[in-house]
Amino acid sequence: MDTNFLVVGVGGQGTILAGDILAEVGMSGGFDAKKSDILGLAIRSGSVVSHIRWGSEVHSPMSTAGQVDYLLAFEPLESLRMAAYLKADSTVIVNDYPIPPVAVTTGQMEYPSRERIDDILSAASGRYFNINVTEKATQLGNVKVVNIMLLGALSSLIDLPVSVWEQTIEKYVPSKLLGVNMRAFQAGRQLLE
Amino acid sequence: MKEILSGNEAIARGAYEAGIEIAAGYPGTPSSEIIKTIALKYGNDIYTEWSTNEKVAMDAGAGAAYSGRRTLVTTKQVGMNVLSDSLMYAVYTGMEAGLVVVTADDPGMFSSQNEQDNRWYARLAKIPLLEPADSQEAKDYVILGVELSEKFDTPILIRTVMRTSHSKSVVTLGARTKGRAEIGPFKRDPAKYNCTASNARKMHPRVEQRIKDIAVFADTLPINRIEWRDRSLGFITGGVLYHYLLDVFPEASILKLGMTYPLPEKLIREFAAGIEQLIVLEELDPVLEEQIKAMGIAVRGKDIFPPCFELLPDEIRRYTREAGLLKQAPESDTSPSSKQEQPKEMPQLPTRSPVFCAGCPHRSTFYLLKKMKLPVAGDIGCYNLGTLPPFEAQHTMGAMGASVGVLHGMSLAGLPENRVCTIGDSTFFHSGMAPLVNMVHNGSRGVVILMDNSVTAMTGHQDHPGVDWAVTEQRPAKKVDLEAVVRAMGVEKVKVVDAFKIKEVEAGLKECLDFDGPSVLITRGECIFVSRNPQPPYHVDLEKCIACHMCFRVGCPAIGQSAEKYPKNNKFKSHIDPTLCIGCDVCRQVCPTGAITPPGTPKGKE
């Protein structure tokens, strides 16, 4: 049985690293694993989408509509774009930290309201969490650990030994930032309680 | 040992294991991570460089392989057009050691100006083409490519697409094969290596015979294989499409081609004979389909699948359902309660189109070009974002270096208005120098705006000849002086201005426009990924802001509306996001009321 993930956000938020860790956790956890990134130019502030799939044998590196089990969104607007990918019993974890695109900040388009976002995502999924993780990461002393905190939250829902997550994170984050990232991971594991 | 690698990382690993000693390329999405990974992970064993362009990389690759070093050359799909000039002679000569060229294609055009199908190049050049489906194959095919290259004395082409280059999957690692311990002396064999016509006449029949021999060999090659399942429907495919097919048609038989040129005719006939309905699944052009039809085999392909864009699993489902091939959607078995059909009242979502980064040195130039309403021939790089609102000030764009030649053509045509072109520093070294010399020699008129941000930015911040490092910032390199190069070409009017000072850019531009001849305006300002020197954020004094939105015209992601309206025009005043602003000062220079100020400036009465 495949487990399909989407990790989405805005360039510069650390989504790619989170997806890389998630894919490797799958492999270390004994699954076949694949990942596919869609990113634009090497500049900041574009939409970033990563597909991650775990299974006994994964074929396509991308999930298709209606196939995704877990959506990890670093930014609310980016989560909405992916609603069609969700399974009915899927889990959605959104970082409640809107980053309005230029079309919104300059008044040409409107950012969807929190109520609208809640409506759409709770209807499209089985479990829906919307938490300001950026604020909690800032409290830990480093806004950049949002990605690891979100992975912590995700890990609390997945039946894999926590050591697999911790060892993979250790491999991917810079050693001088390991402490704060591990604290972020542990804090993330309590986030959905 | 297993690792999870992207296709590009796997190609780098394959280069390591295959005993490649030299790797060269020019950056281009989705190929750029190959050279980068080799430099970072295998830099002790393999020399890497970002050559000035793909042709230069290919020549270097040929020379290294002539000298007995196994060599890898990388390019994105359109770079192959530049590279191909030099590939064509290497096809005739062969080499002393393996030579593998990787082209990373871009169906769907995520970051390219066209959707060309580089499988044609294998047919044009008459060389083998390998197409990996995932990262394991990407690694394996580099090793196989070197083997075949040396066995048949021919360059090998490997083609990935964005999905193979940028997807990660599990790869089993192997050991490195050593290249030759010693090389030289250089083999003086003009009959083999000098393509003068009298020699080339002997080489051409050899090329024709060689590709016939390889076609026979292809029938025995294990990477071309039949997977018999239900025989009522069979697909011939290669590359990542093979994996899509396994998701959409798990019951169908597949002839999976790892080598897609030359085709294994016996194997194709065997497969066709065992299948009721035969389909070719290929993205873009009917390259396989036409060859298989030419064998006299009945097959369907482009009557089912369109020749534009990617064929992802969802598209394969759609088109095969429309063609009556897919009776039931398999995904309905795995997620019976999918709500994808009706995402609840989805509002129209604001787009998140790419914009110049906060602090980008290109911003001032496009602000002025918009204001001055000049016709602008554009080029390839981050500055192509000047095409989009709020600037809309790059009116043509087609190929690397083309802007300078197009500007010359506008001059030849005798346009009644003055004109400019924009070209980045890396693009100028890539292919802007030849057309600029042409402008000088042929007495052209127009302003070449050379946007020097000290890096090849768009593709992920690689070096070019105008910087003092190579591949990694730790490796020192000779820096070529851009201004001296331009002057040495005979350009008489050259102005160098600070890209972060709008008035300076404007004055320089006007001076160049007034010059009766070709002129060059170098707008100098480091990319924020080079300077990495953010200054404290600016702020908007709401007492002074009159909501004129002039600051919106610099198109900065840090500038938006505040919550406060200016009563006289009932518009929202401006706001600077302190988390995004890096204090480049450009917006302050366009504010007519002095409302935008750096930190430390006393605020108005609050």
What characteristics describe this protein?
heterodimer; A: 193 residues; alpha/beta; Pyruvate-ferredoxin Oxidoreductase, domain 3; 6 strands; globular; B: 606 residues; Rossmann fold; 4 domains; 7-stranded mixed β-sheet; 5-stranded parallel β-sheet; 21 helices; 24 strands; 20% strand
In short:
The complex is a heterodimer of chains A (193) and B (606). With 193 residues, chain A is α/β, with parallel strands linked by helices.
Protein described:
- The complex is a heterodimer of chains A (193) and B (606).
- By secondary structure, chain A is α/β, with parallel strands linked by helices.
- Chain A has helices at 15-28, 76-80, 102-105, 114-124, 133-140, 146-155, 162-172, 178-190; strands at 3-10, 32-38, 47-55, 68-73, 86-95, 127-131.
- Chain A has one domain: Pyruvate-ferredoxin oxidoreductase, PFOR, domain III (Pyruvate-ferredoxin Oxidoreductase, domain 3), CATH 3.40.920.
- Chain A is 39% helix and 23% strand.
- In chain A, strand 2 and strand 3 form a beta hairpin.
- Chain A starts with a strand and ends with a helix.
- By secondary structure, chain B is an alpha/beta fold.
- Chain B has four domains: 2-179 and 189-218, Thiamin diphosphate (ThDP)-binding fold, Pyr/PP domains (Rossmann fold); 225-331, 3-Layer(aba) Sandwich (Rossmann fold); 363-524, Thiamin diphosphate (ThDP)-binding fold, Pyr/PP domains (Rossmann fold, 3-Layer(aba) Sandwich); 539-597, 2-Layer Sandwich (Alpha-Beta Plaits).
- Chain B contains 21 helices and 24 strands.
- In chain B, the strands form seven sheets. A seven-stranded mixed beta sheet of chain B has the order 3-2-4-5-7-6-12, with helices on both faces.
- In chain B, strand 19, helix 19 (502-514) and strand 20 form a beta-alpha-beta unit.
- Strand 2 (32-38) of chain A pairs antiparallel with strand 8 of chain B, so a sheet runs across the interface.
